[in-house]
Design goal:
By secondary structure, this protein is of the alpha+beta class. It has one domain. 21% of the residues lie in helices and 29% in strands. The radius of gyration is 17 Å and the shape is globular.
Length: 173
């Protein structure tokens, strides 16, 4: 059974202190995959579609010699949404080295980390022992736009579009 789902990156404008209005959104409509049956296939598709443009600028130089470096957040977020109904836990921890934080998913005690091999280039392991269940960072825990773009590459049949609900209001303060 195919389950259609959506991931919305809403756009807000601050009208006054603590008064935000949603005026538009980037919406990705896509098919969810079956966990754990499709895990290996989706892991490979995500890794195969990682691109330097998705990597935060401060990590791009290191990414040139370590192609998974700097991709853990959006790769993990894409995996999470593709298996949204699997109720996987979002995990993160501060890590050693040039990165500040590492992200992965967890299914009970099973660690699902499609960027783990980036640590092969370092003298330390991923920080799983320090991991805590974590909300997505960013305002209102919304998915990142680059995650939507990555998901669209992984699933070309997905529909990514911009929907404007109203004109962007002007700030009133």
């Amino acid at each position: 059974m195919t389950l259609i789902s959506s991931v919305e990156h809403s756009k807000y404008v601050k009208l006054a202190p603590r008064n935000y209005v949603k005026w538009a959104a980037w919406i990705l409509e896509y098919e969810q995959y079956n966990y754990p049956e499709d895990l290996e296939m989706i892991s490979k598709l995500i890794v195969d579609n990682l691109d330097l443009k998705f990597c935060p600028p401060r990590y791009r130089e290191l990414n040139m010699g370590n192609p998974l470096f700097g991709h853990c957040y959006h790769a993990t977020q894409a995996m999470y949404f593709f298996f949204k109904d699997a109720e996987l836990k979002v995990m993160s921890a501060k890590c050693q080295g040039p990165a500040e934080q590492h992200w992965w998913l967890q299914d009970d005690d099973k660690i699902i980390d499609i960027t783990a091999s980036q640590y092969d280039a370092f003298d330390f392991n991923p920080p799983y022992d320090k991991g805590k269940e974590t909300k997505w960072y960013g305002w209102k825990n919304r998915p990142h736009r680059k995650t939507q773009d990555l998901m669209k590459l992984v699933q070309p049949s997905a529909n990514l579009y911009f929907e404007k609900y109203r004109e962007k209001p002007k700030k009133s303060y």
